[in-house]
Write a structure and sequence with these properties.
It is a single chain. The chain has twelve helices and 15 strands. It is α/β, with parallel strands linked by helices. The chain has a single domain, classed as TIM Barrel (Alpha-Beta Barrel). The strands form three sheets. A ten-stranded mixed sheet has the order 9-10-8-7-6-5-4-1-12-11, with helices on both faces. Strand 6, helix 6 and strand 7 form a beta-alpha-beta unit. The radius of gyration is 21 Å and the shape is globular.
Amino acid sequence: MRDKREIRTYIDAHRHRRQSNKVLHGHPSPVFWLDRDVSVPAVMHDRRRAARGVRKRINLYVGTPYCLPTDPGRCGFCLFPTEVYRDRQQLDTYLDYLAREGEMFRPHLEGAELASIYFGGGTSNLYKADQYAALMNIVRGVFDVPPDIEVTLEGIPQTFSHEKLAAMQACGINRISMGAQQLDDELIKASGRKQTAAQVFRTLDSCRALGLPVSVDLIFGWPNQTTDHMLRDLQALVEAGLTHITHYELNVAGRTDFARNRRDELPSTERNLEMYRIGRDYLVSAGFTQVTPYDFQRNGPLQSSYLYEELFRKPFREDDGQLVGYDAWGWGFAGISFFFGTPRNPGWAYINQTRVDDYFRDLDAGRFPVKRGFHYSESDLRRHLLCPALQRLEVARR
């Protein structure tokens, strides 16, 4: 791309393509992580060497594989690896294997400093109330968890309850991220979820009563969604006192039901752009600040800081005049890790096994459960850092 006209021509030629999360994990996409011989001990050795000159902290992601069954599968739109939830025994077994992976990493992460913790998935609020203490104890078996660290758990409205939320809070989870996606009881049916708006607001009421900060995800560009639908949902969350809303465009790709069978029900890409602008303008007028293309936050009594997401997008930053590097460790099923190094040895990214049976099989054999990875060059790392800078709306011109 040699000049602005060439860039504009390229954008105009491709702007009708739908959003599909291609830069979610930076450069290159995990589709191109093709190295199947990732030596985790060597990656950890390089990390320790890099830490000699730079303070290093870990942004921890702990994955859960399971989701409730839906028709269509994967809620109709999800592009992430998941497996169908059947019963509690699956969760008990998974927690055992999660602990085993942690034991394999513990010698390599001894003394490592945590920056934040995020429990994602899958659906991390499928656990029963009494299992959250076990989940946090597994993390504490590997790390010293500071009492003031941000610990987020992500889930769906119908599997939150006041009892669960209280159990989460009691063991150290102090922020909730709720993937509502739609508040309209008819529109959400396209996903196959048995979800209602009442469940969303019941969860918000419980979080407020417990003093738990909460953020909510909403999707625009949904099948048969209108601008009025979108604004009603946003207005309802604003009036409920939310301080963090993630309002993002529907991803349409792969073999999902929405991509294969519902394209004629989707708003056009031009309408999606219009909805984006209208939604943004409404949230800004309601006192929110836009911090990424899709994240909006405002001050309030239960502030939701979304530190994990912020550090994931900004792996190098200055704290009190000192350069700090933030690695991301994806622990568990389908976890994605980024361990960055130095210009001479820029580091690695890798993804864990994306089938539960393969994840279990590797751990049974005493192997790190890595599926494949990517070894960065210096130019790759520069491109990788550009992608999250674009997501943060913070691209330095020099």
